[in-house]
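The material for today's practical consists of a large collection of protein records. An example says more than a description, so a record of this kind follows:
***
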Amino acid sequence: MAWLYALLASRPVVWLLLFVNAAGTIYGYYWYRYQLADTPPVFLPFVPDSPTASLFFLVVLVAWLFGRSAPLFEALALVTLVKYGIWAVVMNVLVWRVTGTLDWAGWMLIVSHGAMAIEGMLYARFYRFRFLHLMLAAVWTLHNDVIDYVFGMMPRYSVLADYANEIGYFTFWLSIASIAAAYQLGVRLPRQPFLPGDMSFRQASE
């Protein structure tokens, strides 16, 4: 696995991920434009779930490129990338099952959000967050579930409206599973001794 971590840590790969995630974040906020226009201002930070998850990861990537770590954003990124990556895949598969069809945008969301979950887990061994950071990320994530499914701010999938209660129940336990996965991957397992984009590591390994 050393070759994989060396590849993930290379500066060109970090820059590539920065551009790809920036484009995905911008498109994600654009995708939510109609719902955001109808959202009370107090709930605005909690509505665009997936683009905010990728925004957390963008902060992490920028910090790495400057040779720094951002532990709280690392914890937020890991939990939310895994959670909302899996969530969106499941929701679009459910749309397919309910309607019998899925348009190109739905398939694009499956691929892009699946990639979100994968990148979150792949980079977990580089994170520097501690248990306290993870607990703060857990509060954000579970609070977001309350905003979505108690105050009705969940992402709009009109064809799944009849399943709102079941989706809310699934989402809560997906949050718990994502927090547990972040604890295992980001706290318990050994860390890589270098940060992605670290020039000193690259020079030493050449």
